[in-house]
Structures are given as C-alpha cells and as structure tokens.
Amino acid sequence: MKNKNTFNVMKMIMLFFVLFSSKAILAQIEYPEDKAKWKFSVEQKGDEATIIAEVKMETHWHINSIVLPKGVFGLPTTFKLTKTSTFKTVGSVVEPKPIVKHDDASDEDLSYHEGKIFLKQKIKVTSEKDFVLNGTFSFQTCDATHCLAPYDGTFKVNVKGLKSSANSEITPIDDQVKSVDSVSEAAMTNVENVVKEEKVSNDVKLNNSPQKEEKKSLLAIFIISFISGLAALFTPCVFPMIPMTVSFFTKQSKSKAQGIKNASIFGISIILIYITLGTAVTAIFGADALNKMSTDPWFNFVFFVLLVVFAISFLGAFEIRMPNSWVNKADAKADKGGLLGIFFMALALALVSFSCTGPIVGSLIVEAASVGGITPIIGMFGFSLALALPFAIFAMFPGWLNSMPKSGGWLNSVKVVLGFLELALAFKFLSNADMTWNLHLLEREIFIGVWIAVFTVLTLYLFGKIRMPHDSPIEKLSVGRVLLGTTTLLFVIYMIPGMWGAPLKIMSAFPPPLQYSESPTGFGGGITVAQKGGPEGTHLGPQNINVFHDYDKALAYAKEVNKPLFVDFTGINCVNCRKMEQQVWGEEGVLNKLTNDVVIVSLHVDDREELPKSEQGVFKTIDGRNMTVKTAGDKWKLMQINRYNILAQPYYVMQDVNGKDLTNGSADYEHTSKTSDFQKWLDAGLKSFNEAK
Fold first, then answer.
1. Could you list the residue range(s) of the whole structural domain that residue 238 is in?
2. Do 618 and 675 fall into the same domain?
3. Whose CA is closest to 92, among 66, 118, 127, 64?
4. At 593, phi and psi to the nearest 5?
5. Most-buried pick from 241, 284, 358, 562 (CB within 10 A)?
6. How far apart are CA 578 and CA 604, in angstroms?
C-alpha cells in the first residue's frame, strides 16, 4: 500500500510538472495574428461603398505588400471579397506605398508595410436589401530576424442595400479572434512547439508549394498512364482490333472524311468511357480517400493481393472477363449505327478487351491511391488517350496499316512480360504493409531476393527456356527478345550485391531501407545502436546514422552536444524519402556531415504508434481545420502543417539548440534531389549555426 501511495504522489508531481511546462511553452508561442491585428469597416454613400481593412502591427514587425517585386520569394498579403450577386468590385485593392529595401541575406528587394496601414477595396452595391459581405485575408509577419508561418483569416461586414439610407456611415466589427482549440496542454507542448521563422538565403532558393507538388504528381500519373495505355495496345485483346475496327469505319463510311469523323468519334468514346470510370472511383471514395488509403497497411495488403491476381491472369492461369450479357448488349446496340452505335461499339471494345486492359487499369487505380485527389480521372485520361489514338490515326492514314506487325504469339509474350512486372510491383505494397506494422517479415534481403527470383524467371522466359500456357512454340529468338532478356539479366546481376548491403541506387525507391533488414550494417555486421556508440533514445537510421524519432529528446541532445538539429519530416512508405536517403545522404561530403556535425530527428508522419492519452486530442491547424491527433504520425503531421504550412515528404529543416529555424530555409525533394544542391543547403545551415554561436 505504501508503494502504491508513493506512486500516486509521483504521478501527481509529474502531472503538475507537465501542465506547468505546457503553460510556460505556450506563453512563448508567437502567433502571427498577435503581431498584426486586423479590423474591418465599411464607408458607404448610396450605391458606392469602400471596404476598409485596418492593419495595426506591433513595433519591429511588418507584413509584405500586396504587390511584390518580380521574383521575390516572400508571400504577398491578400485581401479578397467573396463574390456574390449583391455587389460588384470596382478596381483592385488599394494599399499605401510600401517600404522597399534590399535584403543582403536573401539578395532580393523586400516590399513591406509596418506600423498602421489601411487597405481599401471599392464596390458598387446592386442589392436592394441589406446584406452581409464575406471576405478572406492572409499575411505573413516578419521582423529583422525571422518570419512566422502564414496566417489565413475570414471576415464579414454589414453593407446597406439600395433602399436603405444613402448617408455615409462606418460599420466596424470586432478584431478577428484567433482560433486555437486546446484539448490537451501536454500534447500542445510537443506538437505546437512554436510557429517560427522560415527565411531563405541566396545560397538556396526554395519554393515549397503544395500546388506545384500536386501538379508534378498529376503529370507523373498522366505519363505513367499514357505509357500503360501504349503497353495495353500490344496485347492479344486489343492489337488485332485496330485493323478490324479501322477497316470497318473506312468501308462503311461514304467518304474518307466521314470515315475519319466516325473513327475520331470512336476514339473520343473510348476516352469518355475510361474517364467515366475514373470519375466514378473519385466520386465513390472521395478526392482524398485514396491518398489516405495508400498509407493504410490493410489497403496495401489488399493492393498486394489484387496485383498478384492480375499478374497470375496475365501469366495465363485464367482470364478476367466481363459478363457475357454485358458484351452482348453492347454489341446489339452498336449494330444500330449512328453516334450512339459508335459509342456502344467503343463500349463493346472496352468490355471485350477487359481481360487484357483490366489488370493494367486496376494497377493504375492502385498507383493513383498514392497521390489521391483527381488522379484516377487523370490516369484514365492518359490511358484511354494512348488506347484511342491508333484508331483515329490509322483511320486518317489507312495505308499505314500495311506497316503494322502481324498478330501472333508475340502479343501473348507482351502480356506475360507485363504479368511478371505486376508481380514484382505487388511486393512493394506488401512491403509497405509490413513496414507499417513493423513485422519484419519482408525485410530488405527477402524483398530483393523475391525480385531476383521474379526477374530471373522473366529472363529465362525471354530466352525461350520457359513457356507459358498460351505461348506459341519459339523456333528462333527475335532481336527484341534477346535485347530485353539481356537487360533483365543485367538487372538481376546488379541486384545480387544488394543481398549483402549494397545500396542499389537505381531501384532505391522500391525495397525497404537499409536499416529495415536482417543486417542493417551490412553482411556480417549485426551490431546494435548501443554497440555503435549511439546516444540513448536513438535508432539505427539511413546510412547507419544514429537518428532520433522523438523531437523533444533530439532537441535536448542537440543542446547538450551543442550541434544543430536536422529535422527530417519523412514517411515509412515515402518513395522520395528512400531515394534521398540512398542516393544523396550517402554521398561524399554529405554523409560525414550528417554523421558528425548535426543531430538528426526523423519524424515519420505515417507512424501508427498510438500516443499516450494525455497527448491525444483535436487541434486546430493553421488553415482553421480540426485535426484529430491520436498517433505519433498525427503529431508530427500537425507539427509540420502548423509550423511550415506544408505536408510533403521528405521535408528538411535545420534548427539551433533552442529549436529556432536557421536562415538556410527549408528543403524539399524537388530542390535537393541533387547531391550538390543538398550539400549547399546543408553547408549554409552549418554556417548559419556557427555564426550564431
């Protein structure tokens, strides 16, 4: 009983300490809305009104101007009215003449306001009745040493309608109230550990735009889908249909122009059918649901099973077919002719060829899950465009049909090769699930062994040593088979050293990282972090570097050894993170600095380890959304969003021993995927840290 009472007293002391520490840290948090207070009012006379934003900044703090000099990195201040039929804007927002000053650190001209200013937007009232006008504003507050994270807010003002008094009046509203939900102060201590500065020197110019990242992802999905559509053309279900369909249109049409028109409509119909499929997937699962699924271990496991089924189908064990009743109905309606008949002819092609195109389409949907948003639509557009182009092109130039290779056994070979590739890709998803669950069943050596086996069998197949169920006898090898077989053989030879710890940079994005293996330090290594001399709380990370997984412990250790903190926002299933760790971190001039000159904390935003109840809760993100924090990944995700207003991995930041961002700015994959760029950014951070000592 005595021990139990002692334990309860200790718990009370610890709880008091946590709450006291939480309040102390929260008191130090710098909120941008505190540094620049906004108040809104209306000056109105008749149908003319001016919406006025009064911005009052604290001493030594400023906000950027609305119009910035060309090429300037900073975020401009915005002041926008939500458009409705009740008014029309007159001209653009009027701002006072800004202060323009050259900044030597970033080597650019700054344009900003300080003190107290008024921003004005004129409108012409068109509503007879009084109405509430809504709007948004955003800004970034900076002082001489650092900038806080951007802030987005909303406002509303009352405007008189045309029937009301035309006398001039001012209708002020209260200051915008900052919105921060405090559910758990202990969690706030760890998660909202100050919204601090993010400046960029002229050594490294970075643009961490989520929109740009999304555009890159969509473009990549489109290219992959287009190439997949081209691959689908050379399958037994689709390729023979090209001359048959084109000949049908050219013979049935009264003129060449009509034949081209009908074939073009046929191609457009194919595109519409597959885009409809992509739209349906997006509508059913939601724009962001697929992206969330991509990090879920159960969905990764389902994707693995799905791709294995597709692969076995392509290898010839069975065919995935649409119901015959669907095909027959589509054929019957295609016989009616006209535009509707052409559309159903395209639908019949899609249904008949599903045994070949279905696995590819399914794989594209799976790939789209890693990006989310409208990628299923973009993917289906790219795939169907490649599939539809030959029908339109050969209809325009029928003579080109003579140059096409004849159908034959080579078409099934294409299908089998695709099956082997799908089988290899399937294990990537199984690996994602294994790493998320931390089961260590499919470690790096086993994964590479599986790929060696798959591509060895593919090599034997290409050289004619193995035949699949639907293959024709091979009398002699074609030049294409020999070249492709030689390429896969070289790839197998290249992978073999990976079983003993070779980095395998060409395929670094696919297998588990080096630290997720039976021998993290290489064949015959097997040493632990403690034996390697790592500090308490560290784990063996990329390139056998000791890394922390807890921000607070890492910051405390950085202060103890007086080294800068290297914050690595990463993910267990992040492909680009693995590329950086294998292709850049291990390079000469980088590895020694990461090992000896900095303290690294790797914060996995998809870590599913559940937090203590005291750290769980619902918190407000910087853009005003509520976010549930339950796992360690949620905590680091919220930290990245609120501190840097971005959620992309990998994302690197260097901080001093007090957790203050250094002036070398932040680094993302786009701007540091080259070793020279990453090294330049790293050196700039070390220089900034040493100069501040």
1. 211-442
2. yes
3. 66
4. -70, -45
5. 358
6. 12
Question: Which of 420, 442, 464 corresponds to the end of one domain?
Answer: 442
In this structure, are strands 108-114 and 78-81 parallel, antiparallel, or unpaired?
A: unpaired
Element housing 652 (H / E): strand 651-655
The answer to whether residue 202 scores a pLDDT higher than 60 is: no
Closest CA to 585 of 526, 654, 495, 503: 503
- Compute the distance between CA of residue 24 and CA of residue 246 in angstroms, rounded to an integer: 76
Alpha-carbon separation of residue 409 from 240, 413, 438, 693 (angstroms)? 12, 7, 44, 72
Name the token pair of 71. Answer: 């090429």
Residue 236 — pLDDT band, cuts 50, 70, 90? Answer: low
* 3-state class (DSSP) for residue 277: helix
Q: Report the pLDDT value the prediction gives residue 392, as an integer from 0 to 100.
A: 72
Three-class SS of 142-156 = ECCCCECCCEEEEEE
Q: Does residue 410 lie in a domain region?
A: yes
Same domain, 233 and 158: no
Q: Are residues 251 and 318 in the same domain?
A: yes
Query: For the segment 301-312, what is each residue's pLDDT rounded down to a tens digit?
Result: 887 887 788 788
Distance from C-alpha of 345 to C-alpha of 251, rounded to nearest angstrom: 16
Q: Name the pLDDT band for 15 (thresholds 50, 70, 90).
A: very low
Q: Is residue 321 domain-shared with residue 404, that is, in the same domain?
A: yes
Please tell me which residue, 630 or 200, carries the higher pLDDT value. Answer: 630
Is the pLDDT at 524 greater than 80? The verdict is: no
Closest alpha carbon to 435 in 511, 371, 522: 511
Among 425, 442, 459, the domain-final residue is: 442
Which amino acid would we find at residue 139?
A: F
**163 with 288, same domain?**
no
Between 208-217, 362-371, 397-406, 615-624, the lowest mean confidence (pLDDT) is in 208-217
As for how many domains the chain has, the answer is: 3
Residue 19 has a pLDDT of: 40
What is the domain-level CATH number for residue 139?
A: 2.60.40.1250
The answer, yes or no, to whether residue 220 has pLDDT greater than 90, is no
Cα 321 to Cα 188: distance, rounded to the nearest angstrom? 54
pLDDT surpasses 80 at 199: no
CATH code (residue 683): 3.40.30.10
How many Å apart are CA 6 and CA 488, to the nearest integer? 67
For the full predicted model, state whether its pTM sits above 0.85.
Answer: no
Strands 565-570 and 599-604: parallel
> How far apart, in whole angstroms, are the C-alpha atoms of residue 274 and residue 457?
33
Q: How many residues does the chain have?
A: 693
In a domain, 540, yes or no: yes
Question: Can you read off the two tokens belonging to residue 686?
Answer: 């070390």
Paired tokens of 297: 């271990």
Whether 140 and 251 share a structural domain? no
CA distance 285 to 283: 6
Query: Is 199 part of any domain?
Result: no
Residue 517 CA to its chain's centroid (Å) = 26
User: pLDDT per residue over 556-566, tens digit each?
Assistant: 999 999 999 99
- Residue tagged 């016989």 (tokens): 335
Tell me, yes or no, whether 37 lies in a domain: yes
Same domain flag for 221 and 167: no
Considering 7-16, 41-50, 536-545, the range whose residues carry the highest mean pLDDT is 41-50
Residue 596 has pLDDT above 80, yes or no: yes
* Residue 100, token pair as written in the block: 């323009």
Q: Are 284 and 290 in contact (CB under 8 A)?
A: no
Q: Which two tokens stand for residue 70?
A: 């060309």
Q: Residues 164, 246: one domain?
A: no
Distance CA 551, CA 150 (A): 23
Structure-token match 């080109």, residue found: 400
Answer whether 201's CB lies under 8 Å from 146's CB. no
Report the Cα–Cα distance between both ends of the chain, in Å, rounded.
Answer: 52
Q: Identify the band that residue 402 occupies on the pLDDT scale cut at 50, 70 and 90.
A: low
